[in-house]
Design goal:
The chain is an alpha+beta fold. It contains two helices and eight strands; from the N terminus they run H-H-E-E-E-E-E-E-E-E. The protein has an eight-stranded antiparallel β-barrel with strand order 1-2-3-4-5-6-7-8. A hairpin with a 2-residue loop joins strand 7 and strand 8. It starts with a helix and ends with a strand.
């Protein structure tokens, strides 16, 4: 019986310390610091996903340059179409990210895409991708997420 009580006591101590009672695991400040570090930069791999008819997917990498400039390359794929290479330019003046996508093809038309949003959550940027060409403009809701 004594060994059963000792085992139960040891289990209680283990559970209490592993659930934050003993100072283990990240603190709220640790989590806030990690989020701040993540949201400070847009450099890295990104995906853009739209779910409208003729949905598109963007996969691209961004590098940050001087004075808030960003650039990168990647691919765009429209539903039931072949991927096409794209180039990305823009700015990141925290928290605003503004991007221009060149080389896009949407519904068999060469278009340029522009998007702007506020990067304040690791959940991504829900925004509008404006596709334009001479005599053509279309707005598509898109979610841009850092991978």
């Amino acid at each position: 019986m004594r060994s059963l009580l000792a085992a139960a006591g040891a289990l209680l101590v283990f559970i209490t310390t592993s659930c934050g009672g003993g100072g283990y695991g990240p603190t709220e400040q640790d989590i806030n610091n990690s989020l701040e570090t993540t949201l400070r930069s847009v450099a890295g791999e990104w995906a853009g996903i739209s779910t409208v008819p003729n949905a598109i997917r963007l996969d691209f990498g961004l590098q940050e340059g001087s004075n808030g400039g960003v650039s990168g390359t990647g691919t765009m794929k429209e539903a039931n179409a072949t991927s096409v290479p794209i180039t990305v330019t823009g700015t990141f003046q925290r928290p605003t990210l503004a991007l221009t996508f060149d080389g896009m093809v949407f519904e068999s038309r060469q278009v340029k895409g522009t998007a702007q949003g506020t990067y304040t959550t690791v959940g991504g940027i829900a925004t509008t991708l404006t596709l334009s060409a001479p005599g053509y403009s279309r707005d598509i809701p898109i979610l841009l997420q850092e991978k």
